[in-house]
């Protein structure tokens, strides 16, 4: 299956700092990537949809100025949590949809996730 | 009404038994359905996808889809302790968004 990587896997930061998380599709082109957040014992919550070369689409209730998304290439999307606070501590997971021969597939492949802890 | 619903469980089955996981969805226009497995502290991994009514088998896993009833299920035959995880059902809606259910926790007892 398609491989998606995330970096870093774990980050601890002080309140008020910004944290950047990278999501890469390693062996395929991903014109669309998704960013999810998951709190303990809860389901995945879609934060935003990232399209290569265009602005991200944010879900209702997600602050676009706080969670900056950049999808600069067909294999890389980044999520920057600006001015992080303890309530932003969560498991952040990206996923990507593969495009094969110009056709976008429906399956999403997930990265390993980034566990963010804000002190 | 939530768009994708699952029984949160926990569902406990003895080793070697069949585990049956169920999911319903509200958007009748949904065409693609997915089952993911998530171990504690890890990200989800795709187990199966199904697009057509009926059954789809892959090894010990069988996905079943009934669009008329808006119902998707996953059967795990010969359940193993390593199958213990949370299983997420997902549906690609008519507005091109994949919505995940809350997940069902499965515990396979040795």
**Number of helix segments of chain A?**
0
Distance, first to last CA of chain B: 37 Å
Q: What is the CA-CA span between the terminal residues of chain A?
A: 36 Å
Tell me the number of helical segments of chain B per DSSP (H or I, 4 or more residues long).
Answer: 0
**What number is the mean pLDDT of chain B?**
93
Fraction of residues of chain B in helices?
under 10%
* Principal-axes shape call of chain B: globular
Biggest sheet features of chain B: 6 strands, mixed
User: Structural class, from secondary structure content of chain B?
Assistant: mainly beta
How much is the average pLDDT of chain A? 90
- How many E-type strands of chain B? 11
How many strands of chain A?
A: 11
Largest sheet features of chain A: 7 strands, mixed
Spans of chain B with pLDDT under 50 lasting ≥5 residues? none
What is the subunit organization of this protein? heterodimer
Q: What's the gist of this structure?
A:
Chain A is mostly beta strands and about 120 residues long.
Describe this structure in words.
The complex is a heterodimer of chains A (about 120) and B (about 110). Chain A is mostly beta strands. In chain A, about 0% of the residues lie in helices and about 55% in strands. Chain A has strands at about 5, 10-15, 20-25, 30-40, 45-50, 55-60, 65-75, 75-80, 90-100, 105-110, 115-119. In chain A, a hairpin with a 2-residue loop joins β7 (about 65-75) and β8 (about 75-80). The radius of gyration of chain A is 14 Å and the shape is globular. The model of chain A has no long low-confidence stretch (mean pLDDT about 90). Chain B has about 110 residues and is an all-beta fold. Chain B is about 0% helix and about 55% strand. Chain B contains no helices and eleven strands. Chain B has strands at about 5, 10-15, 20-25, 30-40, 45-50, 55-60, 60-65, 70-75, 85-90, 100, 105-110. In chain B, the strands form two sheets. In chain B, strands 2, 4, 5, 9, 10 and 11 form a six-stranded mixed β-sheet that branches. A five-stranded antiparallel β-sheet of chain B has the order 1-3-8-7-6, with no helix packed on it. Chain B is globular and about 40 Å long. The model of chain B has no long low-confidence stretch (mean pLDDT about 95). The interface of A and B includes residues 34 and 110 of A.
